[in-house]
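Attaching the record inline, Q. Sequence:
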Amino acid sequence: MGGFKSPLSAQRFASFHAAVYNTFNIQRHPICRPTHRQFRAEAHNVWSDATAAAA
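Structure, as predicted:
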């Protein structure tokens, strides 16, 4: 819990970090580079839509 003022702030960070990490993390898999780029672009579009809706 180093660096966090309370367990609640640590939990908030962890839950937010998990959502972002799960959106952008693509597991190691023998996929070709163009397919990987397509997955990353789709993840970025989803993230952009989600942050635009929250703003």
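The chain has a mean pLDDT of 82. Residues 31-55 form one domain.

More tomorrow.
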